[in-house]
Specification:
heterodimer, A: 507 residues, alpha/beta, Aspartate Aminotransferase, domain 2, seven-stranded mixed β-sheet, three-stranded antiparallel β-sheet, B: 459 residues, Aspartate Aminotransferase, domain 1, 2 domains, four-stranded antiparallel β-sheet, globular
């Protein structure tokens, strides 16, 4: 075992000092007395070098793609090109305000326009909006568009259901219900949509069907054309969750498969960094039925000039301030034009080849519940580990000790003790082999080691139950907790101006 | 072809052999012929130097803020961020990570997010902050939905002075569950909310929440907001607050806010043509289990050492699916990291000093614009911090701003809803004092405005 993550005994930022401003800030003459802050903001004041050292140490206790293989299923954790980072920091990309006059932002408008056209060709849909903030936000916006579409047709009162397979990402049903629809799950058969069940479920109540293809089991829904026909015949619309678009670039596209609208996660397929949880970008691409409802503004081209077009009377309006995550659009554009047509095809081909290769290797260690020809990801079941009293969770934690990130676990939920593994195109055969060997060591380790894992990270196994049962969600909570703990002599909390130390946590 | 995909001699053949298939094409045999496409119609790939040249050529067609005297603001701030902030954001252990599902491997981001939550709690005076939402407008949308979960009714009240984009976002967030957003009128002279209207409407018993923004959409402070709590009884109160203003203003939790949202971009990340932004969200503890989004909590590891993890996840979409409190999955973690690094480098007193400086500059500008024929600046008789609204009594905002632009001044932005369907609106411009403008730029602005006025308000 050679991996060891940094294990800094680094205090919380507020424990780096013992003094915080206690007096209220000097008043601004024009601000009414009642509105003025009566106490200082309780936050440390530390010189820059110490702040930088603090956050640098924290960074060293974090695993990213640049540190390790990151085979999180359905998250498409591919290498984030450095050239994209360089370009996104140019003054022409970063130091531009969304409300500058159009004449001064022609480059931003043109880049946006070009990226829209490019994504139009990738998806096969005529119109694209970059406005939504992330994949789930794209789903939500699209479903609001679906509402508007049926309202215009006088069918909204009736079409109240969104159908989705039981393999769907959790965001799908959550978006559906947030958009005011009843989400209804269709059971799968052999990991794919059960066409008979879908046929039985559609009705004149169906507003739409949300589908990821390839799905979260990594399987291509081969009956997609029949699925589309079934939904359309019932008068519903078909939504493409683009989380897994990486697998089909240049092979097929959502429009060709019969979908009416799609979202694309630029932070997956187009390699923009995920930032430890975000920002993402959930671009929408729509066919003719729904395109008029896309958020405003759209980018229009008049001669050689580009402008923001708000004249879309059927648009749902705004779903977010400004025009989307432009910083990510620049990165995604650089990624896409670097690859070009053949490169993007190669992205899908190599991602799928990697996945099948790793599937064959790991399939020798744990059972694969579905057919073995997969796309960008595959699912294993950790159920055989149970004989030794080991769970998938233990395996995931043990994998971390190998210096790799764990796969997605316990999803899709129709597979018991599931592990969902996605090795994107940017992983070499060597990395895949290293992961396979690590996986083999992990699976065959002793139950004691597996239960106790991880051993080589910044912390050992975390008590998640305690975190949820006794929620301590901020420094304020830690101070309160410190007061409640009976350790006289250490009780500094509530004593403004001194440093409260929580004996349990903030050391 | 970029070097991002390994292509060592024999590599692909070895992979194919192990899979036991003759060609990569065979891996796509499950895609029906009728669903296949030919070419996508995207040009050939480019080498890295060409990509840099091509993208730079596009970006050079933008005129970045530094070329102007900049008075642009609103929810997107033009504010200097110490270089240390981007240095931390550029740590690829942070920016190339995913959501910290494996807490043991992700302590760095989890701890940074816990610090971020703590900071928003301190600034707002509330109890529980989440780990961020997409932007201030969607955070307000999520707040609206939270209010409905905790209170009966169909009507949500917002100021008529709210920026049109936020009104539109809120209308969208309300539309799913069939809720209505209604506007609170404001006093024509002061821009202050009509509290009588609020009291009357709340008395209908059909109001499930009230939102007010501080400063308001015109940039002004409305003391009436401090009296909203008593005006609306037990109806949930949402305050949308500018985080910088909270360095000098009363924390909204202290005057009865149940939820405080905000736009946090100005703390550490550039305007970037409007994104990424940062949605801030905090609420009272009693609403903790109704909150949207990721929340980081403190716990301990197997050795009893402090450790952090995503928590209260039974609220979330991946567990609760259609009954989740929100559909949020990806948020704005990296921008949240920027927020806490920025605030810590600048420090609480530094933030208050910055806000004070911007307020002084705004005041200087308003004074310089005072008495110019055709311009009412500030339009409203109410206190303000770093931003205020001016109104043109002749001509159009567009032509005014265009004239300034030609003198290398970005003079603010028009507040009007640009959609053709919008009702006729006054020619109002939100003007922001930014940290890059001094006395010279302010006088330049005033001179350009006088010239505009002298020309009869023509472009």
């Amino acid at each position: 075992m050679t991996f060891q993550q940094a294990r800094w005994d680094e205090p919380a930022v507020w424990d780096l000092t013992t003094s915080y401003p206690t007096s209220p800030p000097p008043g601004i003459a024009s601000v009414p007395e009642r509105f003025r802050r009566k106490r200082g903001v309780r936050w440390p004041e530390i010189a820059e070098p110490e702040v930088v050292r603090h956050y640098t140490r924290l960074s060293q206790m974090n695993l990213g793609i640049d540190t390790a293989f990151y085979p999180l299923g359905s998250c498409t954790m591919k290498y984030n090109p450095k050239v994209s980072e360089l370009l996104a920091r140019r003054p022409g990309a970063a130091q531009v305000h969304p409300y500058q006059p159009e004449a001064t932002v022609q480059g931003a408008l043109e880049l946006t326009y070009r990226l829209e056209r490019l994504l139009s060709r990738v998806t096969g849909f005529p119109e694209v909006s970059l406005q939504p903030g992330a994949g789930a936000h794209g789903e939500y916006a699209a479903l609001l568009m679906v509402r508007a579409y049926f309202r215009d047709r006088g069918e909204l009162d009736r079409r109240t259901e969104i159908l989705l397979p039981d393999t769907a990402h959790g965001t799908n049903p959550a978006s559906a219900s947030q958009a005011g629809f009843a989400a209804r799950e269709i059971p799968s058969k052999d990991g794919c949509v059960d066409l008979a069940a879908l046929r039985a479920a559609v009705s004149d109540r169906t507003a739409g069907f949300m589908l990821t293809n390839p799905n979260t089991a990594g399987l291509f829904e081969g009956e997609i054309l029949e699925i589309a026909e079934t939904v359309h015949t019932a008068g519903g619309l078909l939504y493409y969750d683009g989380a897994n678009l990486n697998a089909i670039l240049g092979v097929t596209n959502p429009a060709r498969m019969g979908f009416d609208i799609a979202h694309i996660n630029l932070h997956k397929t187009f390699a923009t960094p995920h930032g430890g949880g975000g920002p993402g970008a959930g671009v929408l691409a729509a066919g003719e039925k729904l395109a008029p409802y896309l958020p405003v503004p759209r980018i229009a081209k008049s001669g050689r000039r580009f402008r923001l077009d708000y004249d879309r009377p059927r648009s749902i309006g705004k779903i977010k301030t400004a025009y989307g995550n432009f910083g990510l659009d620049v990165r995604a554009y650089a990624f896409a034009i670097s690859h070009g047509e053949e490169g993007l095809k190669q992205v899908a081909r190599r991602a799928v080849l990697n996945s099948n290769y790793l599937g064959v290797r790991l399939g020798k260690l744990l059972p694969r519940p579905f057919r073995t020809l997969v796309k960008h990801e595959f699912v294993l079941s950790g159920t055989p580990l149970r004989e030794r009293g080991v769970r998938t969770l233990d395996l995931a934690k043990r994998l971390l000790d190998e210096g790799v990130h764990a796969p997605t676990v316990y999803f899709p939920s129709l597979v018991e003790e599931a592990l969902m593994i996605e090795p994107p195109e940017t992983e070499s055969r060597r990395e895949l082999d290293r992961f396979a060997e690590a996986f083999e060591r992990a699976v065959s380790d002793t139950p004691e080691n597996l239960h106790a894992a991880p051993h080589h990270l910044a912390v050992r196994r975390i008590d998640e139950v305690r975190a949820a049962r006794e929620p301590r969600l901020s420094w304020k909570d830690l101070r309160t907790a410190a007061v409640n703990v009976e350790t006289p002599g250490r009780l500094a909390a509530g004593d403004e101006g001194s440093s409260p130390k929580d004996p349990g946590v903030a050391r | 072809m970029p070097r991002w995909i390994s292509d060592e001699p024999g590599e692909e053949a070895a992979l194919l052999e192990a899979v036991g298939i003759p060609s990569v094409d065979a891996l796509f045999s499950d895609v029906p012929k009728k669903a296949r496409i030919g070419r996508m119609g995207i040009g050939p790939g480019r080498e890295e130097p060409d990509v840099v040249r091509d993208v730079d050529r596009l970006l050079d067609r933008n005129r970045p803020l530094a070329r102007f005297a900049t008075f642009l603001g609103g929810r997107v701030a033009c504010r200097y961020a110490p270089a240390a902030v981007d240095a931390i954001l550029s740590r690829s252990e942070f920016y190339t990570a995913y959501t910290p599902y494996q807490a043991e491997a992700s302590q760095g981001m989890l701890r940074a997010l816990f610090e971020f939550q703590s900071l928003w709690v301190e600034l707002t005076g509330l109890d529980v902050a989440n780990a961020s939402l997409y932007d201030g407008a969607t955070a307000a949308g999520e707040a609206l939905l939270l209010c409905r979960r905790v209170h009966e009714g169909h009507r949500f009240l917002i100021p008529a002075s709210l920026p049109w984009e936020e009104k539109s976002v809120l209308a969208n967030y309300a539309s799913g569950p069939g809720l209505r957003v209604e506007e609170i009128p404001y006093d024509a002279r002061t821009g202050r909310l009509d509290l009588e209207f609020v009291r009357r409407t709340v008395a209908s018993k059909d109001v499930f929440g009230v939102l007010a923004d501080v400063p308001n959409g015109f940039g002004h402070l409305d003391e009436g907001v401090l009296d909203l709590r008593s005006a609306i009884g037990d109806v949930p109160l949402v305050v949308a607050a500018d985080p910088l203003s909270l360095s000098v203003l009363e924390p909204p939790g202290d005057y009865g806010a149940d939820v405080v949202v905000g736009e946090g971009q100005g703390f550490g990340v550039p305007p970037a043509f409007g994104g990424p932004l940062l949605g801030l969200f905090a609420c009272r503890r009693e609403y903790m289990r109704q909150a949207p989004g990721r929340i980081v909590g403190a716990s301990v590891d197997a050795e009893g050492r402090p450790a952090y993890t995503l928590t209260l996840q039974t609220r979330e979409q991946h567990i609760r699916r259609s009954r989740a409190t929100s559909n949020i999955c990806t948020n704005q973690s990296l921008v949240a990291l920027a927020f806490v690094v920025y605030a810590t480098v600048v420090g609480p007193r530094g933030l208050a000093t910055l806000q004070t400086t911007l307020a002084e500059r705004a005041r200087t500008l308003a004074t310089a614009l005072g008495g110019i024929d055709g311009i009412a600046a500030p339009r409203f008789d109410a206190p303000y911090l770093g931003e205020f609204t001016l109104e043109l009594t002749r001509g159009t905002s567009l032509s005014f701003l265009d004239r300034l632009r030609r003198r290398r001044i970005l003079g603010g932005h028009a507040l009007a809803d640009p959609r053709p369907s919008a009702a006729p609106q006054a020619e109002r411009i939100l003007v922001a004092a930014t940290d890059s403008v001094g006395e010279k730029e302010i006088q330049k602005y005033a001179a350009a405005a006088r010239a505009w006025s002298a020309s009869g308000g023509r472009p």
